[in-house]
Amino acid sequence: MREVTRVRSRLTYESKQKLVGLSFIAPWIVGFLAFTAFPLVYCLYMALNKVTFVTDRLNMEWLGFANFRKALMEDAEIPNKLFQTLQQSLIIIPVIVVFALIMALLLNAKFPGRGAYRAIFFLPVVLTSGGLISILTSQGQGTISFLQSDSAKSLVAGIGGTLGTTLQTVLDNFLVILWYSGVQMLLLIAGMQSINPSTYEAARIDGAGKWEVLWTITLPGLMPFIFISIIYTIVDQFTASFNPVLSVITFHTKSAATGYGYASAIAWLYFLLTLFILGVTALLFRKSLGFAGSNKRGKT
After folding, report:
1. Are 187 and 223 in contact, with CB atoms under 8 Å apart?
2. Per-residue pLDDT at 292 exceeds 50
3. Class assignment of domain 49-299?
């Protein structure tokens, strides 16, 4: 009888913990249902139709999956842009996360003026919001001078193809790409501060050096935060101003020949590609997320 009471009390405590977690994400759930769910579903509906303007309303002509077939099989530009975006992400995301990790390791150390330096590194996140980032990239202010040298350009020109185009885009916006690391930096600093200091003390007593501590304590403890940083970076980069697919969606939205329906189909293909990349990332980090441990507990 006492055992049953203990189980009930434990379940009650777990339920309370879940309610606390739900209360934290409740504002996001309300915002998603109020401002995102309906536009998302309506966008899918438009993707299945040919949308034309008729005086003061939109005329829908049912096409089924014709817009999707056209985007994938007839319009060669769309698969090329999607593939270019995928290549660009595979280059940019590791650069941002690694740079954020290095700067977080440096800014987590104790030195005078540490708070001011953290604010300086986070300031570009505020400055590059809105239309400012588009103005900077259009004026060519998002690059570093030596990356625009003749040797760098000749190297990219020698690669050619979509990979060469992707590398050129990365080089043209390299400084802006590094500016996108502010939020990831703060996440990783918070992750470092969540590691128990006694673990470091025990490692120092055992004679472990800084390099050993980094690989055996800091990085394993940061894996969930690295995962969060990668997820944030994926979503952030897939909505960046220099993303090649977004320019195509904007073009077809304004085009009278294709219109909202075809642009919505491209947007949904882009959305599915993003979900696929997020799913692959979650699988790669499944151990750090505790999926493996929960599966083992379920089997036993």
Report:
1. no
2. no
3. mainly alpha
